[in-house]
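name: query_chain
kind: protein
chains: 1
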Amino acid sequence: MYNKLVKNSDWPATTIHDIAEKVAMGPFGSNIKVSTFVPKGVPIISGNHLRGYFLEEPEFNYITEEHADRLKNSSVYPHDIIFTHAGNIGQVAMIPDGCKYDRYVLSQRQFYLRCDETKVVPEFILMFFHSTYGQHELLSYANQTGVPSIARPATNLKKILFKCPPIEVQLEWKAQVSPLIGSYINNRDENESLASLRDALLPKLMSGEIDVSNIDI
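structure:
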């Protein structure tokens, strides 16, 4: 449905800079260290949470609310689009509505785009960066020497061009794809819950803590 929408050659070319409310980096490595982790607080997003289209939330490290307040430039919220700029470059995921926490903080290898939603639908930009062309544009700034990384990630992201239909057209597109996105997220969350249940029960089953002799299969 995204590909069908952007096939229209009449849509104007627009830069990410033109539709961005904010583009910012994660904190310097010295600002988040293992010694700053706490059992509960504001979760830290790493590459492990960006493996699909939308933020995955199996497990997190946390920092305190006060620490997160000091890193407010690296704090992200629903509808923000998160990128990895070092290591597993090319990862792009959006924080969806209905996520587990009100806010998150990025790790040092991530950066983010906050869209001006009067100009673009964030889901539309997400699909662009998952398209072949969008991935090519993003990775065109990659440096393959040593650890793969995107050079000057925030600056170069703003330069990327894409076809930008009018906001009214994007909103119609979003209304069509929203049920599909909801099903995608629900199925993924159910799979995560079943995997957690399996991981909890299997050791007990193997150790004999659970008696299966009377269970009909």
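note: The chain is about 35% helix and 20% strand.
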